[in-house]
Design a protein that fits this description.
Layout lengths: L5 E6 L2 E6 L4 E7 L4 H8 L4 H15 L1
Antiparallel strand pairs: 1-2, 2-3
């Protein structure tokens, strides 16, 4: 059984994405985890799609 590479984890004040392979936090801190990002992390976890979603949400913050 393989472990998922990326998982959303609750941290004080919101959520962060944990990279199991790299053993580090990946991406930004979110007060609320966007539904489509959470669905991708819990579903197929396509790296390219996750990266695109993160870029989109990062641009919305600016």
């Amino acid at each position: 059984m393989s472990r998922r590479r990326y998982v959303a984890r609750g941290v004080p004040g919101g959520y962060r994405i944990w990279d199991n392979r790299g053993r580090r936090w990946w991406g930004d801190h979110y007060e609320l985890c966007p539904d489509d990002l959470l669905s991708e992390l819990n579903g197929k976890a396509n790296h390219d799609k996750i990266t695109a979603l993160l870029k989109r949400y990062r641009a919305q913050k600016r």
